[in-house]
Write a structure and sequence with these properties.
single chain, alpha/beta, nine-stranded mixed beta sheet, 9 strands, about 45% helix, about 20% strand
Length: about 260
């Protein structure tokens, strides 16, 4: 009963906040005002606080541009978490655009929707991401191509790094930066989460979205750690497979440290 009351209160407050911020965000989008990029960060911070998710960070966001963030991916919560610590746009599969609630949020945050099955469009999509990066936006890519169980990192797909290499020819300095980031869910109600409770946050693709969302709301009191690695300079001579392996190693190391440090 108490959990239901808490969920009702959290959802009500979030709807009020959203209704207040939504008109301003639409105005900023229409005017192409810088706050169209900044405002989502504040909404995500409020949303996480209401849900009961506490975020801590290690390291910091790279300051050099163009910048592509590559992160592990285990849950829809990753979107809220990363968007709460940086002004970012996401690369998402086209199906996300039609999801309830999250599809609207993704569009408001100006996500880049990609069709992974159509290889003939891959370069066109990579160019769109490159244009965003060269315009000064920070883009987030989940190179695993799917969600994991939160305990490990699936091998990264080197083809997805075309977004970084495509930005090089039009970059002012002929280089871009790729920053590895690890998102680790570490505690639940103040206690180490461990493998047993990881499904509370992890969202494999075969689990329906709404039941998982309700489960997170019922649980509350979750701790997540975001670790920023050192940005990697990428030039025209950078091998994409080597780049993928380097970021893979960095993310895996940070993820393991966070999970073992819990």
């Amino acid at each position: 009963m108490i959990a239901r009351i808490r969920i009702l209160l959290a959802v009500t407050l979030l709807l009020i906040v959203s209704a207040t911020m939504f008109p301003f965000h639409l105005l900023f989008l229409w005017l192409k005002h810088p706050w169209r990029i900044r405002m989502p960060r504040y909404w995500h911070r409020i949303a996480l606080r209401l849900i009961g998710v506490r975020v801590t960070t290690r390291g910091g966001l790279g300051q050099r541009r163009p910048l592509l963030i590559v992160s592990n991916h285990s849950s829809w919560l990753d979107i809220l978490v990363l968007a709460s610590v940086a002004d970012v746009a996401f690369v998402a599969k086209i199906e996300v655009r039609d999801w309830p609630v999250f599809g609207i949020l993704a569009r408001l945050q100006r996500s880049v929707f990609v069709v992974r099955e159509q290889k003939r469009k891959s370069q066109e999509q990579a160019n769109e991401i490159a244009d965003r990066m060269n315009a000064g936006e920070i883009v987030v890519l989940f190179p695993e191509g799917t969600t994991s169980d939160g305990n490990r990192l699936f091998p990264t797909k080197s083809t997805l790094f075309a977004a970084a290499t495509s930005a090089i020819p039009t970059s002012p300095e002929g280089r871009v930066f790729v920053q590895p980031v690890a998102v680790a869910y570490t505690r639940i109600h103040g206690m180490p989460m461990g493998h047993y409770h990881r499904p509370v946050t992890a969202w494999p693709g075969d689990v329906p979205l709404m039941p998982h969302l309700i489960g997170v709301l019922e649980t509350g009191a979750l701790d997540v750690e975001v670790s920023f690695g050192m940005p990697i300079e990428v030039t025209a001579t950078t091998n994409r497979k080597v780049l993928a392996q380097t970021t893979d190693n960095a993310i895996r190391d940070m993820l393991e440290r966070s999970l073992h440090r819990r």
